[in-house]
Amino acid sequence: MTARTDKPHEIVERTLELSRADGCVVIADEHSTANLRWAGNALTTNGVTRGRTLTVIATVDGKEGTASGVVSRSAVTAGELESLVRAAEAAAHGAGPAEDANPLVTGVPESPDFTDAPAETSSAVFTDFAPALGESFARARAGGRELYGFANHELVSTYLATSAGLRLRHDQPNGTLELNAKSPDRTRSAWAGRSTRDFKDVDPAAMDAELARRLGWAERRIELPAGRYETLLPPTAVADLLIYQMWSAAARDAAEGRTVFSRTGGGTRVGERLSELPLTLRSDPHEPGLETAPFVVAHASGDDASVFDNGLPLEATEWIRGGELKHLTATRHSAGLTGLPVTPSIGNLILDGGSDRSLEEMVANTERGLLLTCLWYIREVDPATLLLTGLTRDGVYLVENGEVAGEVNNFRFNESPVDLLGRATEAGRTEKTLPREWSDWFTRAAMPPVRVPDFNMSSVSQGV
What we know:
Layout: H1 8-18, E1 23-39, E2 42-62, E3 65-74, H2 81-93, H3 129-142, E4 146-162, E5 167-182, E6 189-196, H4 204-217, E7 221-222, E8 227-233, H5 235-247, H6 251-255, E9 280-283, E10 317-321, E11 324-325, H7 332-338, E12 349-352, H8 359-364, E13 368-382, E14 387-400, E15 403-408, E16 410-415, H9 417-423, E17 426-427, E18 431-433, E19 445-447, E20 450-461
Parallel strand pairs: 7-15, 8-13, 12-19
Antiparallel strand pairs: 1-2, 1-4, 2-3, 4-5, 5-6, 8-20, 9-10, 9-12, 10-11, 13-14, 14-15, 14-16, 16-20, 17-20, 18-19
């Protein structure tokens, strides 16, 4: 038997049978991808891949506590299972007691499709999309612009089984589309991205029309110095900032005084008001169009995850409600340390509570300000304030009297997303969006455009 023919549920059952540890968690991730790439108004490559990753988590009880060992391998066959299990057990025996040790999760009903074959994607996912893309190539060519980009679709079937009796399964589709339009001399560039589950809700013609309009705006070039400007952040930029904020919202780190969510004098800022706008930042594994695993899948332990929590059911969670900080990410272990509720990370993020205004309507209501396309190369400067730095990219536009006057130079920015929430004066209509910076790791987001009266453009950037 090979990794291509072994049934995943049989693999995880056989792995559990081989275990000699006091506890065992097995995670099989069956993944398949299909992709298209293009450049200069022509397809360049396409392909389909398939693979498997098997993770074994062994737990060993001792006088001083329970230790854990984690080993992951790709393309594992039935004949290689025992060596994988022994390696995880050896890692557990060689480790000290796990700080986050807890009893393995029990009492979660078995997934009814646990023994079914894994879901798989194929090039058929592009059946309607590819011809529409070809038509966009023709329009772009006639309009004197070049289209570059890629479309990627992934399906991951996760099988999670434990010695405590859990048998869980989740199928996760994930699609991304990134389209970049350039002028023939490459001096003007515009970007648009979309997140999708099946490529049935993306329209390359509409995206190309949007990019053509932006390239037209860029025909007039305006140089501006660094400074603080009223700025309209589109949903993709808001997503990039708030995803990083979520990744920095571990309850334990905050309680220990190490993050922006630490309260001066001790404790956390849970209960404090972060924004005067009635904004709610939330996650929900059952959010329509942004569905994600309804249980914890942890391949390793860290500040915001614990391998002992694998299989723990996930529920809709409000991180910020009506502008007030309500929850930080907490495992069972960190919840016990901080006295906060158990609120594990969830694989999507939604910000709502703004008006029904579109970004275009917000532009029309701007006397003078900047309109961004997206952010890039975001890095943390100071965890205590969550100060981030990064670059604007693929189009920054000056808005005057409700209309785009032209394209300005790019900037480096220095801002904290927490501070931005506090200074924001308007949020518009929430819509699904693709974060540009974090799209390799996090794609399921819905955000509104946000108006900030004094966004800090700290220096001029020479990037396009």
